[in-house]
Structures are given as C-alpha cells and as structure tokens.
Automatic annotation (TrEMBL):
This is Inorganic pyrophosphatase. SUPFAM superfamilies: Inorganic pyrophosphatase (SSF50324). Keywords: Cytoplasm, Hydrolase, Magnesium, Metal-binding. It comes from Hymenobacter rubripertinctus. The lineage of its organism: Bacteria, Pseudomonadati, Bacteroidota, Cytophagia, Cytophagales. The gene is ppa. It is found in: Cytoplasm.
C-alpha cells in the first residue's frame, strides 16, 4: 500500500499558477530549518541556522512541482499571523526571487495568503512595503554565511515570470513522476541509477 506524501499527494491548487497551495515547512521568525523528508513525508529538523537571522516569511513548497535541484518549487508566503509547519495555505502568487545557492538555481516564489485580508490586496511585488523585499534578499544572502556557503539573489521578477516558473516546475514534475502516486517506486529507481 502506498504511503501518503504531501509532495505527491496534495493538490497544487485548482487555480495554479495564479494561486497555489503552499505547504509550510518553516514559520516566519524561525531559526530552525525544517524540511520535508522525501521518503517518509514527515517534517524533519535539517539544522538550526548558524547566523543570527530568522525567516522573513512562512517558507515551504508547492506540491506536485519539481525543479532542477531535485526538490519541489519553494514558496515564501506573506501573512499577518504565524502559519504553523505542515499547514496548507492558499497562496496568491505575486512574484519570484531568482537565487543561486552554491552553483544551482533556486527560485523562490513570493505569494500572499489568499485568506488574510491584511495582505491579500497585494497583487504585485511593487505593492509590498519596500523593506519587505530587502529583508528577504538580506536573509537569503546572509543565512548561510557562517556555514561558508555562497548564496546570491540575482533579481526579483513579477508575477508573469513567477507563473512561467511554476508552469515549468509542473511540466517537469509531470515528466518525472508520470504515474503520480508511484513516486516511491520512481525515487527508488533514481537511487538505484545513482540519480537520487
């Protein structure tokens, strides 16, 4: 019997790419780097951040997406309240932060919680308070500094670019996991082939 895995078994949202389901791994303000364990579908503590910084927004991923770094597409969700880990949130996409982590592209979709009246009126990155994007950029450029790892935020782009990136990650997911729930078998096959 196949086990439930949030990455593969939760809908990415009926209105993707304009609005998506975000699965939150890390609440805003956390110094803990939680991430989905791909094998078990549980949340694990990857590490406590080395630097004196904390996540500037709720952080997680969009289910049923896949990127070149072998992970689902990351999402930052702005909300006026703390969103707890493993919570599903309907997220309205407003832009994307293009980033290079080590040598890999690592895009971060930027969205607002669709059911939070305090933020759901934001439609574009330009609508956000100016400090918000600077805080995001500074966090991601600084948070691995004491680990002697390099992260570069290349640029922020608008929602049309974000939609395109989401659509590409959906296409790549569908190509990589064509049988949906047979993801365990696919991952085992990749591991056997030295791709996982």
């Amino acid at each position: 019997m196949a086990k439930f895995n949030p990455w593969h078994d939760v809908s990415r949202g009926e209105n993707a790419p304009t609005a998506v389901t975000g699965i939150i791994e890390i609440p805003k303000g956390s110094k803990a780097k939680y991430e989905l364990d791909k094998d078990s579908g549980m949340l694990k503590l990857d590490r406590v951040l080395f630097s004196a910084v904390h996540y500037p927004a709720a952080y997680g991923f969009i289910p049923k997406t896949y990127c070149d770094d072998k992970d689902p597409l990351d999402i930052l969700v702005l909300c006026s309240v703390e969103i707890v880990p493993m919570c599903l949130v309907e997220a309205k996409v407003i832009g994307v932060m293009q980033m290079v982590d080590g040598d890999e592209e690592d895009d971060k979709i930027i969205a607002v919680a669709a059911n939070d009246i305090s933020v759901n009126h934001y439609n574009e990155l330009e609508d956000l308070p100016p400090h918000t994007l600077r805080e995001m950029q500074r966090f991601f450029e600084d948070y691995k500094a004491l680990e002697h790892k390099s992260v570069t935020v290349q640029r922020f782009m608008g929602r049309e670019d974000a939609y395109r990136i989401i659509e590409e990650s959906i296409r790549l997911y569908d190509e990589t996991f064509p049988n949906g729930n047979d993801h365990d078998q696919k991952l085992e096959q990749q591991a056997l082939n030295g791709q996982g």
